[in-house]
Structure formats: structure tokens, C-alpha cells
Specification:
With 594 residues, the protein is α+β, with helices and mostly antiparallel strands. It contains 19 helices and twelve strands. The chain is 55% helix and 11% strand. The strands form three sheets. Strands 3, 4, 5, 6, 7, 10, 11 and 12 form an eight-stranded mixed β-sheet that branches. Strands 1-2 form a two-stranded antiparallel sheet.
Amino acid sequence: MSEYTPPLRDLRFVLNEIIDIEGLSRLEPLSEATPDLVDAVLEEAGRFSREVIAPLNQVGDSEGSRLENGVVITAPGFKEAYRQFGEGGWQGMSFDPEYGGQGLPFTVATAVEEMIGSASLAFSLCPMLSRGAIELISQHGTEIQKETFLRKMIAGEWSGTMNLTEPQAGSDVGAVRSKAVPEGDHYRISGTKIFITYGEHDMAENIVHMVLARLPDAPPGTRGISCFIVPKFLVNADGSLGVRNDLRCVSLEHKLGIHASPTAVMSFGDNEGAIGYLVGPENGGMRCMFTMMNAARMAVGQEGLSVGERAYQQALSYACERIQGRPLGADEGAAIVEHPDVRRQLMTIKCQLEAARALQLFTAQSVDLARHHPEAEAREQNAALVDLLTPVVKGWVSDMGVEVTSMALQVHGGMGFIEETGAAQHYRDARIAPIYEGTNGIQALDLIGRKLPLAGGQVVRDFLEDVRRLDDELAGTGDELKSLRQSLADGVAALGKATEWMLTAGDDPRDAAAGATPYLRLFGIVAGGYMMALAALAAQKRLVTGDDETFYRAKIATARFYAEQILPQAPGLLGPATRGAGTLFEIDAETLNS
């Protein structure tokens, strides 16, 4: 497996020239995030990712985590790296300084988390879930709960988990059966949860489980679910750890990838019942958990980008070193990077990664503006934009991650199928992201069912209009960006037509649902094209000054490749997105196998 090189130059380009990271520092709560500080944070995060975490990726895959006598032992080096992660303040970058956070923009934390995930996706999952748990307690917890849990979690001394899924329920959260029985100032929790990432491990002193369960008199469905903090060790009044709570890891799942990340089956309340503390109102657990889920959905989308970047770097390195065959028109052999089809694959990966990175950070900037902008209207507009883009980021980017890691493996040829090269690990690790935190089919349904109708469809129409406004700027660039202008116009036209069809779909809800996944892909491709257009325009402006010409020329060439090879897929998705469910159900289930 090749070494990891953090993409600092591209991260700086997106932060400084596509989005306005310096502008965020003019918001009072983010005033410490000066350009110099942000640059220093990125540099140190890159070093930490490259030197401390990246060497663990392959050993984590081969060694994995194991359960011994109820104790989960993580892969060699993980415990020490996690200690350094906490001591370095990486867990608390964007959290409230009142509880030990650094108060940096979420956008900066997002850039850092990309590098951590590229270094080792399996390692990054623990702090990712902890971030979501911190968000949940920060927004919905009582002052006592915040004082009890946040400082240690933000410091990286305690980790957090999300406990939703149960064996009989799967993604149907409304079918949760875990019980919560009131007892004084707490509740007794009992039930079984599956697929719990880092549900048990040896890296943190305590694990703070966020658990969904039902009260005895709760109404059915999601309306009757409550959310509870259930720590592995109870916390004494002075903040020290007390007795072990009544919960245990029953087993670890054997998985396709992310072997170093322990995926636990958790049993709560085998004896007297695990002690839990209600977060938010009784029967209001889904609202609380959505805070954690939405944070996780953005992070899981980024996992596709992170693993895709690592796979791309390895494929590029291999392609530049592997001598095989003669390029067309050449007299002697050359590295396979000179063969057109290999170059096509590498450029296909590169352009989509750059589009995804820009979209991820663009959305993260909207999170910061939704939280910290001084004007209420701007906060509301940005919050709505985040709502709209979250399923796109999660779904499109994670799907892209699987596709590009597969393509990176293909660049290796037969050697990619051999585990020792490491290319297969990237492919296996990336495959979980389209499944995590609500499968991408669920994200597509969320997009068409909940997000498109926001403000009567005005949120999505405003986004489409922002994309269309670039046409005038692109027209003023001459012939160099002609293909980008035309492809983006065709793409946004297709997305606009599909959007209006989704907003006015007929009485049969299956029609819109049948096109939801093609629609999400169409949206992602066009949103990526929007980002690449912004990148190309920014690069052209910098070329006038004569700065770093090689980098900016490459930016324009990559954007043009996206326009010529990726964006033309968008109009082709209009039909699948709007065709309806007719042919899906012409054959009954019994004859599908005939």
C-alpha cells in the first residue's frame, strides 16, 4: 500500500477560492479562525494523518478488532493513535470552548476529517460517531448532562455511539422494541442493538451510548421513541467513573471491510436494566436522534471521498511506475499512465473527487452560516440549504466512493485483485458508506419526500437558480470553458425538469419513489458540475496574476473533463427519474425468478 499524501493544496484552493473561509472568521463566534490559523491547522492535521494514522490502515485491515472475554481489543497501534488524537484536540475542533472545544468553523473540521478518513477509515469512525453524540447532547441535553459528558467527550477521553438498529427492525426505526422503565431520576434500559460501530473498545475510558427505546405507555411507531444517554460506566458526582453499567458486547460482526472498526451487537439490561438518562422530551427521541443522524450522514458521504482519495493516490502511483505495453504511436514501452484508457480512469476519479470535495466543504460552510450568521433570515436560508444538500452529499458522494475505488482497483489490473497491494481494501472499506446511516435508497426518498417540498419547493428552485446564474460568467470566458457551459446548462435543465416532475407527481406515491435514486444521482452530478464550474472560474482569475500556473491549468482541464465525461450523464437520467413505477410492478414478485 502506498503512503498517503494529504491533498492540502486542493483543500486550500476550495477553502480560499471557491468558498469564503476568511469570511467565516468575520462572524463573531468564529473570529479566531484567521487564515493563518486555519492553514496551520490543516498542515498539522495533514502531518498527523500521514505519520500517525495512515500507517495503521493496512495492519488494521489484516489484524482487525477482536472480542476476548467481553473485552474488545482494537488493532495494534489504534489505542495509542487515539490517545494522540485526543491530546491533539482534534475531537473538539468545532465545539463550544465553554466545554473545552476550540470554536473553529465546522468547515475546517470537515476538511480535517477528510484527511483522517483517508488515512484510515476504520479509525475515523470512532471520532465520527463521537462527534454526532456530542452534537446531540449539545443541542438537546440538560445543563447537568452537558457538564457531565461533554468535556470528556470533546477532549477525546470518552467516545460516543449511536444505538438505533435492532434485529427485527433494520432501517424501520419505528419498529424498535428496546424498553425504558422510569426509576427516579433515571430509566432502566433493556434490549438488543446491532451494527453498533465502536460499541465496545479499549481506546477510550468510557463509552457514551445514545440509545433509542420505548417507555411502557409509548404510542406505536416513531412517535413513541425516546432517546437516552447510557454510559458504559456510570459517572460519579465529582466526574470520576463509577460502577460498570448493565450493558455488554455480545459479539462482533465479521465484515466485508473496515475490519479494524469493531461493529458490536450490544445487549442492554441483562440483569437489573442499564441505567439511562432521558435526552429531550419523552417520546421525542427521533428529533434528538436526527441531530446525530444528519451529522453522521454528512460524515458518511465524506467517507466516500476519503477512501476514494486514498485509492486514487495509490492507483496513480502504480500507474506511473508500472511499465507495460507500448502506447499507441510509440516505439517502446512506457508506464501505463500513458495509455488512454488508464488515463481516462484516473481522470474520471480525479474530477469526481474534486467535485465531491468542493460540494462537501460548500455544504459545511452553509452549516457554519446557519449556526453563526448574525441575520436570522440568512441562518434560515442556509439551514434549509443544508437540509436539501445533506441527502445528496451522503448519497451521491458515498456511491461515487464505491465507483472510484473500484476503478482504482481496475487501474492495477490483476495486481489490484491481490490483497497485498492494498487496492482491494479501499474497495471493501468504501462499500459500507452507501449502506450506513440510512441506505442511499432511503436518502433518495428523503430528498424527494421531505427536502424538495421545503418552502413549497422554493429551496431547491433557489439552488437551481444559483447554478443557472453561472451561465453569464462562463459565457464571458471565451472558448476555453465552452464545453463546461453547455454541459452545465443541459444538466441543470434536466434537473429542473425532473424536480418539477417530482414536486407534482401523481397520486401513486410509487411513481416518485421509483425515480428517487436516479434523481439523487442526477442532482449529485449537476451539483458536482456547479462546483467544477466555480473551480474553473476561480482558476481562470488566478491565471491572470501568473500564480502557480501548472496547478490552475490542471484545475481548468479537470473541470473540462468533468463537463465532457460526467455531466453528459445528467440528461440521460431525466427519463429514469420521471418514468414512474409502471414497469417495476408489471411482473409480480413470484415471477421475478422466471
